[in-house]
Amino acid sequence: MAKLTLRAESSSCLFSHSTGSQPSSFVSTLGRRSLIRFPPKHNLEFRVFCSIKEKESVRETKRVDGTIPLEERSRAVAFVFGGLSVGSVAGFLLAPPLIQNLGWESVFYIFSFLGIAWYLGFQFLEGQASWVGESIPREHLIPSPGVPWKAFFQSQAVWAMIYAHFCGSWGHYTCLAWLPTYFSEELNLNLTEAAWVSILPPLASIFVTSIASQFADSLISSGVQTTTVRKICQTIAFLSPAACMTLSSVDLGLPHWEVVGILTGGLALSSFALSGLYCTHQDMSPEYASILLGITNTVGAVPGIIGVALTGFLLDSTHSWSISLFIPSIFFYLTGTVVWLAFASSKPQTFSKGD
């Protein structure tokens, strides 16, 4: 039960994204080698710290809606959320030397300090620069009173976003937590090689995100319906990793580095979601985009808790990476594609405020 116990402790931290996520997965993987674990007395503080970070993406999506033309929205959203991939790469690069030289606690202290400094810096700039207030009208940042919760949950399109977010997060979080171990144990890479290889998916995502956003905006500019564009991008984001995981789970006798390349390509292409699902909140309702993202993001955090732990349980029970890691993700990618194609919509909706 060593895998399950260690992953259960760290799975709750996967509410967070970017740099906050990478140290947790690296420490967990390293923990199976050198018994580096989080003291129980720090578990609560660790989980609260990580979960607080999640609301920042909700705030930032509100800064995009209503102020960016539809033909540029994919690039704007990709620019904001693309920082997650940059943070992932930075986390993987910085975490190992920090842990080795200063202890595992230093990772969270240093990244927390950098986050606070970043926030205070932008608060200062926002107070000093007149262009900030001019570019983002206050009415676009604060929704009207009386949130129509009932109307949200009566919309099939909203439920499609919720399920798609859950499905995408399942593959993202389980791979984030377990791929370093998979590379080390299944592909026989040493710990250093596994750590470096784990950088490849988020690094490739940086480039894919730029290509995907340009692709989506060009389609919209050429007259393709927004809903069609979002469905195309999200379908690519789901089917690409599903296909690559299928190839990786079947014994084709491929060299280990080819398996690494296949998984890297599939996970990188999942960044098309930034021009699919992640733009749909703004397309559907600029006024309530941040609230809609808050709803889907909350459900999307659940796989970070149950998915990571369940993967460990299945791995302990079956000793099969295909059954524990790949098949569940493939299932959610495929069902998420079906639901998205059937019910997703970017058509603007005026939710009734009377509900």
UniProtKB/TrEMBL annotation:
Family: Belongs to the major facilitator superfamily. Sodium/anion cotransporter (TC 2.A.1.14) family.
Keywords carried by this UniProt record: Chloroplast, Membrane, Plastid, Transit peptide, Transmembrane, Transmembrane helix
SUPFAM superfamilies membership: MFS general substrate transporter
Residue stretches spanning the membrane: 76-95, 107-125, 158-179, 199-220, 256-279, 291-315, 321-343
Membrane topology annotation: Multi-pass membrane protein
Molecular function via GO: transmembrane transporter activity
InterPro entries hit by this protein: MFS (IPR011701), MFS_Na/Anion_cotransporter (IPR050382), MFS_trans_sf (IPR036259)
One GO cellular component, as annotated: chloroplast membrane
Name of the featured protein: Major facilitator superfamily (MFS) profile domain-containing protein
Subcellular location field: Plastid, Chloroplast membrane
Pfam families assigned: MFS_1 (PF07690)
